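#dry-run=false #mode=assembly
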Amino acid sequence: DAGVIQSPRHEVTEMGQEVTLRCKPISGHNSLFWYRQTMMRGLELLIYFNNNVPIDDSGMPEDRFSAKMPNASFSTLKIQPSEPRDSAVYFCASSPVGGGIHEQYFGPGTRLTVT
Amino acid sequence: RKEVEQDPGPFNVPEGATVAFNCTYSNSASQSFFWYRQDCRKEPKLLMSVYSSGNEDGRFTAQLNRASQYISLLIRDSKLSDSATYLCVPNSGGYQKVTFGTGTKLQVIP
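#status=ok
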């Protein structure tokens, strides 16, 4: 079975450019999470969706960040305009719903470098 | 106080040793607890779920102390393959929401 799929795996861009990260969750999972990981701050939750609806976006750093989930099999995280401090590894994770808090299955991550 | 606090380590232990990590959490309402492991430049993966007072899976034992708001992870007979960063993860309220600690790095030495 395919796990969580993320693309691209690596992205290098210049400051001010728009960056779009993509995620395909595991089929049948109803919850989707976007995280950012840096050495200084560890793994931070940016936003999570349940049944394609954003439930908690309190972790989104600022208006430059936006996330969408147009259907159950696809989500995007967009940064516009990008800044060097956005450099990090961005993980997408999915989880089944029901019966309590479940394991989250992570994608391989997108390593973003903004110069 | 941080939601989740872990000693970053690194813990350098010889093969075969027993090692334990602690993690404290601040949300007394947390009901579900997890340990994830993360290998270098890889994604986190679930190691253990912690229910009630604890859980055991082979060489790994997790214990929960709700009164003191900490959970621990004990690894017996350490293997080289146990070298990784171990992330403590309590749920943080809200539907399906958890908070990841910054992790404890373990290096098992031959």
